[in-house]
Amino acid sequence: MGSLKVALVGGIGSGKSTVLNMFSEAGCGTISLDAIGHEVLESQDVLQALAEAFGPQVVRADGSADRAEIAKAAFDAPEHTELLNAITHPPILAELDRRMTEELLSRDIVMVEVTSGEISKRALPWADALVAVSAPEDLRIARACSRGSQNEQDIRRRMAHQPTDEERESVADFVVYNDGGLDEARRQVDSVMSQLKRRCQAQRFA
Ligand SMILES: CC(C)(COP(=O)(O)OP(=O)(O)OC[C@H]1O[C@@H](n2cnc3c(N)ncnc32)[C@H](O)[C@@H]1O)[C@@H](O)C(=O)NCCC(=O)NCCS
Ligand SMILES: Nc1ncnc2c1ncn2[C@@H]1O[C@H](COP(=O)(O)OP(=O)(O)OP(=O)(O)O)[C@@H](O)[C@H]1O
């Protein structure tokens, strides 16, 4: 049997985590790239490199990462974001590779939720296929607001830095339209799973 590494992308509030759970129930291995990104910030080597690049304020007195300070320093200019990426992405990709390999020992398909907004092949060199989750902007804002931690203005500001649904759909191999109920999303997930399994089969006989 072949194997597939699949990236799951979608805008804020589109329902990525909800859809990821459905893929897990349908038999996929699942990984959150965001969670790996946060774990990497616990590495002393990474913290030291960030402190050298952005200043000592990015490390708290207790030795942990100050994520708000890192974001402030790293997102104030594109070259600073590139510096952040140069420090954090190699260990993130190494850990992702390790986990995907581990998942693929017992599964044919591993689905990786990508929250950073990146959708280019260059940013996702490991992905064999891309699944996009789409939903109308108003619905996404309502869903994201309902979680209570961010207001509409914060959410719109983040959205402005992310690709649009149309941009994601134009590069995706599959699209889950999460604008109906959960049962409707699950039907689409099951259909995408069948097609991904067929791709695995085709690899096997290739
Ligand atoms: C800058 C950090 C410390 C901010 O952490 P915090 O918990 O406050 O926010 P969170 O991780 O939820 O990210 C918030 C938003 O910032 C944006 N963002 C995060 N990292 C990046 C990046 N490298 N480039 C562009 N936007 C980014 C995304 O839109 C994301 O939704 C953290 O995002 C980080 O370490 N980023 C670098 C690693 C990375 O690229 N992670 C993304 C997934 S691999
Ligand atoms: N089809 C649906 N029907 C009803 N509620 C939904 C549906 N899909 C998602 N939701 C709800 O919308 C909210 C946002 O969903 P989720 O957390 O999965 O989105 P996300 O894309 O992972 O968000 P973010 O990128 O902001 O972390 C959650 O409260 C979830 O329960």
Structure write-up:
The chain is of the alpha/beta class and 206 residues long. It has a domain at 4-28 and 107-205: Rossmann fold (3-Layer(aba) Sandwich), CATH 3.40.50.300. It contains nine helices and five strands. The chain has helices spanning 16-25, 33-40, 44-54, 67-74, 78-103, 137-146, 152-160, 165-171, 182-205, and strands at residues 4-10, 29-32, 109-113, 129-134, 174-177. It has a five-stranded parallel β-sheet, sandwiched between helices. Helix 2 (33-40) packs across helix 5 and helix 3 packs antiparallel against helix 5. The radius of gyration is 18 Å and the shape is globular. The model has no long low-confidence stretch (mean pLDDT 93). The structure holds dephospho coenzyme A and adenosine-5'-triphosphate. Dephospho coenzyme A binds next to helix 2, helix 4 and helix 5. Pathway: Cofactor biosynthesis; coenzyme A biosynthesis; CoA from (R)-pantothenate: step 5/5. GO terms for molecular function: ATP binding; dephospho-CoA kinase activity. Belongs to the CoaE family. ATP binds at residues 13-18. This is Dephospho-CoA kinase.
